[in-house]
Amino acid sequence: MPIDMFLRRKKDILKKEDKSFKGDVDEKIRNLCDKINSLADCYTTSSCSGRVVLMIDEDEKKKGLMLKLYHDLISFSELKKDLNEIIKTGKNIRFKMEPCALHVACKNFEDAQKICERARFVGWRRTGIISSERRFVIEMNSTEKMDFPITKMGKILVDDNFLKIIVEDANKKLKKCWEKIEKLEKEI
User: Fold this and answer.
1) What is the pLDDT of residue 183?
2) What is the CATH classification number for the domain harbouring 183?
């Protein structure tokens, strides 16, 4: 892609309104995004620092499935309170802890390859170039995750002791994601 087209596209993408569910960049990944966006031949197209989600359990992805979204550490009392509210809907709910994720567009293959190598080096195991049509797009995902049903027909499926284990494990995984974000920021 000619440099002027790439830079025009970068400028257009970076000034667009954030259409994510949250509505803005997660604070824990903002510095990494800013650093990548400061590079002449790269820019971010989407990002997530890792999150915990309570969502309606359906096969088809569509709007309105996410009922509660946490982009920070969670507490047992907060999770329990939110579950007690959500079960009133009678919907089947999944608990998901999703890892940090980042999409980066690069002008050339060499820049994309360098970022992929650095991401893998600091632990972003699921990293690769997913598109090379108009630009080289890198998808980076860490591997920390949890995903299981937590309510069925208006009842919480696990006891409080298990909920406490879930909270502890999810928080450990989120912290691990944030460490990987910091490490990648130092590598770029």
Assistant:
1) 96
2) 3.30.1960.10
